[in-house]
Amino acid sequence: MDLGILWFWIVAGLFIGYFILDGFDFGVGMTLPFLGKDDLDRRVLINTIGPVWDLNETWVIVAGACLFAAFPEWYATLFSGFYLALLLILLALIARGVSFEYRHQRPESRWKKWFDGMIIVGSVVPALLWGVAFANIVQGVAIDADFNYTGTLFDLLNPYALLGGLTTLMLFFTHGAIFVSLKTDGEIRERARKLATKAGVVTIVIAASFLVWTAFIAEFKVAYLVLAALAAVCLIGAWLFNLRGSEGVSFALMAATIALAVLSLFTALFPNVMPSTTDVANSLTIANASSSEYTLTVMSWTALIFLPLILLYQGWTYWVFRKRVSRATIEAATGVAAHAA
């Protein structure tokens, strides 16, 4: 296989991993106003992702680094053209990370509510803007002959891209609610399951609309249609199993939904990496955006050695922190009783 094509799919795989793992992180953050009835509830929610959220975020760093090394032209056009959107994502991720670390440093409810708000905003903004960004990449943007983006931030906020943003927002929200039901016990577990059921209906409608619209943009590629259909089936299956209270199966199907949806977008994009809407000759493709054969060869051997080690470490981390979190465990760990925020 051509190494440029191989790395196109490796980058796709890295973004799949990021959206699955940080996706439920974002979802948990977005459920705080709905499931966090008091401070103890909110602590339970945050503790479900406490040991893993920072590890999950490393996937986007690796994806960005691989994009820079394997497709420098794609990286340059993407990060310069989408600069403001990506900066907003970065600031949101920083605010969310700071909130996780500082929320518990002082006992005042006002202090905690301030950082809870930052967690919510820091979860909503990336969940929305990642969808906007990828929808624009698939649809194509204004690129000149020097591969420079010539549009504005408002050009990126077109109806198709905003629908893509709503799709990732709702997918991550539902994914996070299901994860909460998988990782908690007692009343909060039941409330999370009910929230996922309600959110799942909205997610199915929005995601279906986006996949159908994308089918027209992809000119009904057979591979895209198959992957999009499988993603739809998995999403409906996740909703049905959540309805039955089978959180493990539901969560696995949500992960499969996100994986298949992202894979379908990369399939719709292939062999382009960033189509131009001004002139098809200005489009960035795998061929004209990739690094040299030598660079890609070195990267391939590096990935072959280190990627399995990273996966093993992350798998071990999830195994260690596999137990459910409940109000009782938080109370036992801190030695304090539940109290209203």
From TrEMBL:
Which is a Pfam family this sequence falls into?
A: Cyt_bd_oxida_II
UniProt GO BP: aerobic electron transport chain
Query: What Gene Ontology terms describe where this protein resides (cellular component)?
Result: cytochrome complex; plasma membrane
State if Magnesium is listed as a keyword: no
Keyword Cell membrane recorded: yes
Q: Where in the cell is it found?
A: Cell membrane
Q: Which InterPro entries match?
A: Cyt-d_oxidase_su2
Q: What domain of life does the native source organism fall in?
A: Bacteria
| GO terms for MF | electron transfer activity; metal ion binding; oxidoreductase activity, acting on diphenols and related substances as donors, oxygen as acceptor
Q: How does it sit in the membrane?
A: Multi-pass membrane protein
Chief location: membrane
| Entry keywords, A to Z | Cell membrane, Electron transport, Heme, Iron, Membrane, Metal-binding, Transmembrane, Transmembrane helix, Transport
What is stated as this protein's family in its record? Belongs to the cytochrome ubiquinol oxidase subunit 2 family.
Which named protein is this? Cytochrome C oxidase assembly protein
Supply the source organism for this entry: Microterricola viridarii
Q: What is the lineage of its organism?
A: Bacteria, Bacillati, Actinomycetota, Actinomycetes, Micrococcales
